[in-house]
UniProtKB/TrEMBL annotation, chains A, B:
PANTHER family in UniProt: LACI-RELATED TRANSCRIPTIONAL REPRESSOR, LACTOSE OPERON REPRESSOR
Any one GO molecular function term: DNA-binding transcription factor activity
InterPro entries: HTH_LacI (IPR000843), LacI/GalR-like_sensor (IPR046335), Lambda_DNA-bd_dom_sf (IPR010982), Peripla_BP_I (IPR028082)
Family annotation (SMART domains): HTH_LACI
Protein name (record): LacI family DNA-binding transcriptional regulator
Domain of life: Bacteria
Matching CDD domains: HTH_LacI, PBP1_SalR
PROSITE patterns: HTH_LACI_1, HTH_LACI_2
Pfam families: LacI (PF00356), Peripla_BP_3 (PF13377)
Domain (HTH lacI-type): residue spans on this chain: 3-57
Provenance organism: Luteibacter pinisoli
DNA sequence: GTGAAAGCGCTAACAA
DNA sequence: TTGTTAGCGCTTTCAC
């Protein structure tokens, strides 16, 4: 019925252990033997039994992707990362499982422990905002489970992938400045998220470089959600001297800003320019379409998983890869009125 | 280190086999013995090793969720289903893996076979549109892999969950009729998707019941994407006698219709009413917010997985569960001009 | 109702 | 460089 390693060994005229060596790319096999075994595997369409492998070898060939589905309004972001992680795992014949965890819940660590003792993942991929949740990282190190992160805040000794969000934010604000805007507002994301901090810092950097003093009334707190964008914008548009442009820390909030503009009878981009960050599918579907920063989430997930796998498989060592950003200039930004 | 079944047996003063019986809810254990074993498991925080279980027992305790990420523009839909499936699997201590497959690709079946022989899932959950892809179903039956579906077209002998989409579509068109609309257009989804057929049928049923003859010019083909909605609407709005309301077969297309309305200088809902189907997060973020049909995707994923699991675990038999729909009346629909 | 022995398919440790 | 032996943690089969 099922082709076993032993069957391949018999066919290739070697011992089971040698087949195992070939299967695991171990040393100490001559090239000719290796080839002979490979041919036999191919011919018999041999598929190693994952449970037998992990039981005997004490490794699971499993990568778990951890995320917080509470603090992530834009689930397309996670879906794209997941796609990328999956692609990388598939390519290396690892399997992947997904694990929602909520930082706000008291049983975060208990659930993490359950994951580890139930499934024994060889490593995990962390997504914002849990990339920097200290109790999590501590527990992973104690349990000796390697991890790679997408957009981690602390970057020393961390594997994964990042983008220079601060530079990207600065660039998009400079785009507004170049259009002649001077009263530029910013809607901040959830406090303590790395993304919020970087994007705010980029905004400040651009404004300062243009010689503009920060008007505290123009910097308002949001929470990455559409509703928080609406609320923030209502505040901004009620100001006696309202902004001519709003840079929201993500696309969902930018959408909320555009909604609020409608409520106040302001035309985008004629009366007010609006831009966001992320380049979610939504941003292209709005009218006018949203100027934003492209984040290649899928690619980032793939890279993070690859770094983890290269760490696990011992080929050299995983790194923290930095990828470039790109601005998507669309209809929601125009010259200052 | 790790607590094994044998350790539990020793503590409870029984044989390993008896612990195994308790673990698997088998018969032939007295209640007192069962209780004693349970207590020992609890006390030692025993976690069975999944690989050992599946190697010895020839089952994987694994459910795979299959989807086509090609034909699914709204990935939040899949993400929500996934969340529900995961919840159900967790509750029954099954693990879940996700598997993108593309009907358009030639290697669909090869990739399915790879999934089966690599991971041996005990069952799979199917999502639209692959719920009715004949070669897939055939292969699953041959390989003896049970499946449950979300919104399958063929419903005889199928496990899973469904909603009466035709009635829902009829209801939303009746809402437009009640507002005084008579020239109501419909934008169809991808041909052959069950969703497209049901929603079109509901539209026709409502129009016919209102005594209105179908105007073929008002029924146009789309493809579930934003862009296809724009294109369809441009055609409709160019008509000499344009519709006063448009029912698009999903929210993404409805968004495209709203975009096109802007291009033609038409105000929604003043000049034209627009409604969709699905109640994606997007639908609440538009301005005006979209009238649509709520589909509880997460719940549907959970129910489908539960039906599969109840089939797998032999507790009675899985069924095809029908769940109710609900209309979300928002700002994009109003009285006919 | 319960237990003893054998073995699932693979790899670790050691030997040759 | 290659093979042998033992065993991973559980379930099966079959005996009691």
């Amino acid at each position: 019925m099922r082709v076993r390693l032993e069957d391949v060994a018999r066919k290739a005229g070697v011992s089971p252990k040698t087949v195992s060596r070939v299967l695991n790319d171990e040393a100490n096999v001559t090239d000719t033997t290796r080839e002979r075994v490979r041919a036999a595997m191919e011919e018999m369409d041999y598929r190693p039994h994952p449970s037998a492998r992990s039981l005997a070898g004490n490794r699971s060939f499993l990568v778990a992707m951890l995320y917080d589905n509470n603090d992530n309004p834009a689930s397309t972001y996670l879906a794209e990362i997941q796609d990328g992680v999956l692609e990388a795992c598939d390519a290396h014949r690892y399997s992947m499982m997904v694990r929602p965890l909520r930082m706000r819940d008291g049983d975060f660590i208990r659930r993490l422990d359950a994951l580890i003792s139930d499934h024994h993942p060889d490593g995990v991929v962390l997504t914002p905002p849990i990339t920097d949740y200290a109790p999590l990282l501590k527990r992973l190190r104690e349990a000796n489970v390697p991890y790679a992160s997408v957009s981690p805040v602390r970057q020393a000794k961390t594997l994964g992938v990042r983008m220079d969000e601060q530079q990207a934010a600065r660039a998009i604000v400079e785009h507004l400045l170049a259009l002649g805007h001077r009263r530029i507002a910013h809607v901040i994301g959830i406090a303590n998220h790395g993304a919020s901090r970087w994007r705010l810092a980029g905004y400040r950097e651009a404004m300062a470089a243009a010689g503009l003093d920060e008007d505290p009334a123009l910097v308002v707190q949001g929470a990455f959600t559409f509703a928080s964008g609406v609320e923030a914008a209502r505040h901004l548009f009620s100001l006696p001297d309202r902004p001519t442009a709003v840079f929201a820390a993500n696309d969902d909030m930018a959408t909320g800003v555009m909604w609020a503009a409608g409520e106040y009878g302001l035309k985008v981009p004629h009366d007010v320019s609006v831009c966001g960050f992320d380049d979610t599918p939504l941003s292209r579907q709005l009218w006018p379409a949203l100027t934003t920063v492209q984040q290649p989430s899928r690619e980032m997930g793939k890279i993070a998983a690859e770094q983890l796998l290269s760490e696990l498989r011992g080929h050299g060592t995983g790194k923290l890869v930095q990828i470039p950003f790109s601005l998507q200039i669309r209809g929601s930004t125009a010259a200052a009125p």
